[in-house]
Amino acid sequence: MTWLITGGAGYIGAHVVHAMTEAGERAVVYDDLSTGIAERVPQGVPLVEGSTLDGDRVARVLAEHEVTGVVHLAAKKQVGESVEQPLLYYRQNVEGLRVLLEAGTEAGVGSFVFSSSAAVYGMPYAAGNDALVTEETPCAPMSPYGETKLAGEWLVRATGRATGLSTASLRYFNVAGAANPELADIGVFNLVPMVFERLTEDRSPLIFGDDYPTPDGTCIRDYIHVADLAEAHVAAARALRSSPGRDLTLNIGRGEGVSVREMIDTINAVTGHDSPPTVVPRRPGDPARVVASAERITVELGWKARRDLRDMITTAWEGWLHHHPRP
Question: Is 288 in a helix, a strand, or coil?
């Protein structure tokens, strides 16, 4: 079986490609390289440069490589940018997905794994509520990015029901870490690299609000190691291959909450810094607590996260230093 992995030259996508090939699966990467890096793709894995909006090109790649399954990670993913450019996000994330699904079903592709996000849930808690987010928690995305992911899930599920395509929508929580330094996240959009950047510039890490209804007043999130996330994709892909017509929607998290202050304290400890954070005003729309229930994926796929918070920070720091060497 050959898997087309869209966005396979990106941070998460490259980890998925490596995990798939290490598990003995054949892969072809399809990436427009707008944010992806060609060198991340393993030797021997074909890399085709192209957009998911180009249906003719997608169809040719599917036919040429005899693709039988798709793992779709290619997407725009910055929440703030999506608020400023919603039309761009709907075009890339929803129309690109539609084109890919159309080409895939016409080519006889049997399995489709979709990269979704915890952003589909929006702000799921009232003050003081400490329940976990399950796959049944109502979805109320708070940004065009989250909306496109939820719309994508609907489109994937509807296509599966209409055509018999086996589908899985994987709702990622907060991804960190690296399987090796070369594959590390080089963007500065998420908490861990944002803290790293401030530390290496001898500036205090920032906490956006410390008056939330949580034990230490800062937001609580669920963090997942990118290598665990990649292994979840392998498990999902194999489950779809062995169960035609399957329809899965699964959280990818650890089920453990970590506050922003706890995360910064751990980063300081791991990196050898001692930089107390500076508290600044809240950012609009940040929910107080979003922590996954990870039970369903264990039942459905037999998968469970194996790596802890220190693993994430240690490997992310090694990757940061690899890409940002000290003078």
Answer: coil
Nearest to 8 by CA among 33, 39, 31, 32: 31
Q: CA 224 to CA 171: how far, in whole Å? A: 12
C-alpha–C-alpha distance, residues 79 and 145, integer Å? 6
pLDDT the model gives residue 125:
65
CB 250 within 8 A of CB 301: yes
Q: What is the dihedral of CA 226, 227, 228, 229, to 10 degrees?
A: 50
Contact (CB, 8 A) for 56 and 31: no
pTM of the model: 0.95
The domain defined by 2-176+223-252 folds into Rossmann fold (3.40.50)
Q: Tell me the CA distances in angstroms from 38 to 9, 66, 312, one per residue in order.
A: 6, 22, 24
State the catalytic residue, choosing from 125, 145, 172, 212.
145
Phi, psi of 43 (to 5 degrees): -60, 140
pLDDT for the residue 326: 76
Q: What is the pLDDT of residue 127?
A: 46
In whole angstroms, what is the distance from residue 125 CA to residue 131 CA?
A: 8
Q: What is the pLDDT of residues 63-72, one digit of tens each?
A: 999 999 999 9
pLDDT tens-digit profile of 43-65?
A: 999 999 999 999 999 999 999 99
- What pLDDT does residue 129 have? 59
- Determine whether 30 is an active site residue: no
CA distance 271 to 312: 12
Residue ranges for the chain with pLDDT beneath 70: 125-130, 327
DSSP state of 119: G
For 181-221+255-323, which CATH superfamily applies?
Answer: UDP-galactose 4-epimerase, domain 1 (3.90.25.10)
3-class DSSP state for residue 133?
Answer: strand
Cα 88–89–93 angle (5° rounding)?
A: 120
Spans of all domains in the chain: 2-176+223-252, 181-221+255-323
